[in-house]
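note to self — DONT lose this again. spent like an hour looking for the file last time. sequence + predicted structure for the chain T wanted, 99 res
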Amino acid sequence: MMSSDLTKAKFYEDLHVLLVTAPKADKLIVLVESNASVSTDHAAWQGVLGPHGLGGGNDNGLLLLRGTCAEHRLLQTNTLFRLPMWEKAMWMHPRSRRR
């Protein structure tokens, strides 16, 4: 495992511990800049993704969806509303315009 993979694994492990120890009655808002692109398959990720995702997806997005959102019942709120693309993501590659 590379050091970036170890760092990523440590981050998600720490986040998991935090989410498990939070009181169930609390309403949680988790803000994460994880270089994750999540898919638009809201049928497969019902309760996690809304119908207005960015498209595509990457390994970080899958890790975020499977390892955190689905397990802890967290919703990707930026996929719930139809917004202009520039309001859905924090960064876009200048040449390919991919997020």
